[in-house]
Amino acid sequence: MKIDFTKFNFSREECEHMNRETQLLQEKNSNHVPVLIMIKSSVLKMEKQKFLVSNDIIFSDFVTNTLKKKLIGLNQNDTLTLCTVKLDPEGQKSESKEITVNSSLIKDIYEEYKDTNTNLLIFKVSRNTSYKYLKSSVKYWAGY
Q: What is the domain count for the chain?
């Protein structure tokens, strides 16, 4: 089953499929956390959206050393907003909660925020560009 991870709603069958795959991954890699990245931006792109992250990685290191480096279209002055997502395949809605980047281990973040329908740690990522950065990058053309 091919699942389109660019959308934010999944059917019951897609959630069950992701749950089965996650369980198989966890059996083979019990010291890793399955993470899915969903991008909510027309500017940001990412070649890879699914990760197996070692339990002993600090969450802030994952964001800085993995996520920010893999995102295409992220400017140096941009900040990321991360929300954890919990899917509701029955109502076709997802619940999200903004999470601050901290020094917790990724396994602790997983235990607290994992989606119970898929057993994945799902992050919705969006980009914030500071007005100061935009203002300094704009060039005015005169003499039309």
A: 1
Residues 8-31: pLDDT tens digits? 677 888 888 889 999 998 899 999
Helices (H), 9-130: 12-28, 59-61, 68-70, 106-113
Single-letter residue type at 104: S
The residue segments making up the domain with residue 114 are 12-137
pTM of the model: 0.81
| DSSP of 98-123 | EE---SSBHHHHHHHH--TTT--EEE
The sign one gets for the Cα dihedral 89, 25, 63, 112 is positive
Cβ neighbour number for residue 76 with a 10 Å cutoff: 6
pLDDT confidence tier of residue 4, bands split at 50, 70 and 90: low
